[in-house]
Structures are given as structure tokens and as C-alpha cells.
């Protein structure tokens, strides 16, 4: 099959790690008989340098015309980069928020998996992680506090600020459906996370998730308050399969979960809309501290490409092949600097990409 892939290499380590992920995709194409056609797209700092703005209509159009977009990372060092002299709406990250909204990418998926081979990088006690964990955090990405009205006013000389948190039932239902569909293909459990003891938006969330659950009788549903969930993630992470939650809770919990899994350089993400289209990117950022050193871990970008094969192209076998190749490389003891441990063999970004290809 022909895979039309938009590629945003982006800023910082983005170009280094995406190049390796593309090699892996090409290797998959060779082995399974697919043709990967790439369109390079500019966004973030790279777009500011050329076009003066972080995201152009041309890039949005080209992204729309692709089946899926693979992205590196956006942004740079806020202390030193001239991009951050610009007003917030013109900085690299503004492009990211805009493309999510323009392409209606409402479902953000971030798996947090503890690789057997990397248990030594996990900050949790051995007894807690002896059975490992493998969860998928599903964060609503285009609603809630991030997109509500906000203002700061003066009331009798006292500065007062408002941020509005709004969800309607349609927004909740579409993310809930996505969550149940994904859980149905995994271990068939959804933990819906809210603050229903306090917030109206959470009470509606809970109601709509319960209504939606009726269409998925094979999937177990439980509700959990967000404060308890934050605690359970470090106490017993193995209990989770799919965590379904709103925008800000998801932001916070997914960062917590990725730290619990050990290394930011390992974790991919996907942002999906109602179609098969998706934007796939590593969970980590542009890592200005290691740019150009050839030591960035390309595994998160590579696993993002695997998520793309699975969700946008329904190529489960190909996705599994990539994931197995990554596990194999780790099992053989090859590590980039960020996941290095005693007795292992340290390799750079490029060698890691080549090793993964060699196991496909
Ligand atoms: P952003 O705001 O874009 O999320 P950030 O400020 O959270 O960025 P990152 O760019 O994610 O920060 O970097 C955090 C730390 O993780 C840095 O020390 C960076 O070098 C490291 N890091 C991030 N991604 C990788 C990677 N792929 N390989 C190795 N180290 C990484
Ligand atoms: Mg970050």
C-alpha cells in the first residue's frame, strides 16, 4: 500500500530523531511491500526562520492532504532562542496548538509502558513493578480549560482572573468512544478520571462516559477521582489499561506516567481526529541541551511511527514488528545515553536507528 506521510522534522533534536524513524518506516516498506511517500512540512521555529510565522496555511493544507503526519519536536531554549523574543502567539508552540485545533485532533494518546529491559530506569520500588505495566492515557485535546474564555479583571483594586472549563456532551462522547474502542483491542478496561465530587463538567463527563459504555459491554468501566489517580499511578500502575480523561488532567497525569515509565526518550504519542488521520510525535521536547551531539534517543519517534502504522493505516503486524525490533535491541543491551546502565553498550542516535532496522 502507498503511505502518504507528512513529515514535520521540527526543531532541536527533531530532525535527528525523525530521520531514524523514517529509516525504520522505509525498512518496513521494503519488508512488507509498502511505499512510503514523504512530504516535508515546515512548522515551529523552522517555519519562523523561513516564513516568519510558526504555521502557514500551506503547511495546514499539506498536512490535511497527507494520510498522517510524523513530527519531531517544536521549540527551542526559551532563554537563548530569538523565537522567544516574539509575542506568545508567534512563538513555535503556537503552531502546535493551532494545528491541533485546525485538524480537530481531539484525542491524544500517550502510552506509558515499562519495558522489562529498562526496569532499572524506573523510579518505583521493585515490588511495585515486578509485573510491569502497560497503560494508554487518552487525553481530550481540544476542549476544557485550554480553550475556554479567560480574562483578568480588577475588582475594587483586587486583580482577579478567570479561566473557563467547558465541555459539551458531544465532545465527551467522541473521546469516550475512542477510549472504549482502543480498550476493546487491549485489556478491555477503561478508567475514566474526573473530579466529579467538585466539578459540574466532571459530573457531565461521568454521565456521558457511562452512557457510552453501554455500547461496549465487553469493556469494564471504572471511575476514579483525579487526585486518587495521581496517587495510584505511583502506588499500583499495573492496574491501568486505558485512562480516559479531560485536557488538563490528562496533561498532568501523562507527564507523571511517563516519568514513572522511566525515560522520556522512549515514549511516543498520537493525536487523532474522527478520521484515520493522526499526528504522531515523541512525548519529549526539542531537548536543546543535546542538539547536534548525535546522542538523542530515536526510540520515541520510532514508536510514534509504529503508532501511525497501527492507527492511521491499520497495519497492526507492521506496528508490532517495529515494537518487537525495539524490544530486541534493548534486550541485546544497546542503549542511548539517556537509558544507559551499567554493563550495557552505549550507541548514538544513528546506530540506534540502524540497529532497529536490522531486527526488522
Ligand atoms: P517541551 O516544552 O518541548 O516539552 P521540555 O522543556 O519539557 O520541552 P524536553 O525537550 O522534553 O524538555 O527535555 C527534557 C529533558 O529530556 C532534557 O534533558 C532532554 O535532553 C531530555 N530528552 C528529551 N527527549 C529526549 C530524547 N529523545 N533522547 C534523549 N533525551 C531526551
Ligand atoms: Mg515537556
TrEMBL record:
UniProt catalytic activity: (2R,3S)-3-isopropylmalate + NAD(+) = 4-methyl-2-oxopentanoate + CO2 + NADH
Domain Isopropylmalate dehydrogenase-like: 4-356
Top-level enzyme category: oxidoreductase
GO biological process: one example: L-leucine biosynthetic process
Cofactor note: Binds 1 Mg(2+) or Mn(2+) ion per subunit.
Chief subcellular location: cytoplasm
GO cellular component: cytosol
Superkingdom field: Bacteria
Binding positions for NAD(+) per the UniProt entry: 285-297
Locations listed in the record: Cytoplasm
Keywords: Amino-acid biosynthesis, Branched-chain amino acid biosynthesis, Cytoplasm, Leucine biosynthesis, Magnesium, Manganese, Metal-binding, NAD, Oxidoreductase
GO molecular function: 3-isopropylmalate dehydrogenase activity; magnesium ion binding; NAD binding
Residues under site feature: Important for catalysis: 146, 195
Tagged with keyword Magnesium: yes
Binding residue positions for Mg(2+): 227, 251, 255
Residue sites binding substrate per the record: 100, 110, 139, 227
Pathway(s) served: Amino-acid biosynthesis; L-leucine biosynthesis; L-leucine from 3-methyl-2-oxobutanoate: step 3/4
Catalytic activity, EC: 1.1.1.85
SUBUNIT field: Homodimer.
Its job: Catalyzes the oxidation of 3-carboxy-2-hydroxy-4-methylpentanoate (3-isopropylmalate) to 3-carboxy-4-methyl-2-oxopentanoate. The product decarboxylates to 4-methyl-2 oxopentanoate.
Family affiliation: Belongs to the isocitrate and isopropylmalate dehydrogenases family. LeuB type 1 subfamily.
Name this protein carries in UniProt: 3-isopropylmalate dehydrogenase
Origin species: Muricomes intestini
